[in-house]
Amino acid sequence: MPGVTLDGVPQKLYRYDVDDTPVDGAVDVPPSSNRMFDHEADIDAHMAEFTQSLLIGWYDYGVYNPLSGGSDAVVGNTIYFRPFFVPRARTYDRIAIELTVVGAGGTVVRLGIYRSSAAHIPTTLVVDAGTVAVDAGVAVKTITISEQLTKGNYFMAHVSDGTPEFRSIIPRITFLGAGTGGILDGRAHQGYTKAAVGIGALADPAVTGLTLTETELSPVVLRVLTND
Known about the structure:
Layout: E1 5-6, E2 9-10, H1 35-41, E3 59-60, E4 64-73, E5 79-86, E6 90-101, E7 108-116, E8 122-133, E9 140-149, E10 152-160, E11 165-173, H2 180-185, E12 191-194, E13 211-213, E14 221-227
Antiparallel strand pairs: 1-2, 3-14, 4-11, 5-10, 5-12, 6-9, 6-11, 6-14, 7-8, 7-10, 12-13
């Protein structure tokens, strides 16, 4: 209350009602600043978690703590959706997949990015990066993009018209949680698949009738241009 004194010294009483407007740095009236709201609004400025600042010029897997890895033979014309978490706004300049066994002559793979719904299903198409040849040269196959992704959950998509093999990993942690097999061996759900979709332009929104899988999938990765 105004006019309160202690030993003749005017006192300033703090307000204890919490507003919902970010007022970071309001040090004179600390309780009136909604600190949780402030930090959520600018989370990367207040976290030391390593994914907030990945090394520029290298690749982001979008999942963490892999259990193991190997080589995954894809089924032709089947689309694969693998979860990908972006912890802060970040710009990427390459989308890539590692070829481990070449496909028959003329085989290609199409790569893309989808947003995730609140129910963790692929929804809106963000990037259809087009195709890259996978019929020669065991190596990381890249396509140039220029895309800023905001913080959130996404899916990396790939579909081939042949049966090449790609590097695969089994992440322990994804936003899809763990299935019954995952409870036993520490693996998360790996993503979704859908057969017989073809190699043409990616659907927008994503195809439906997806199958959730615990089988290891090949990571489509993104090269970091900037941590925004």
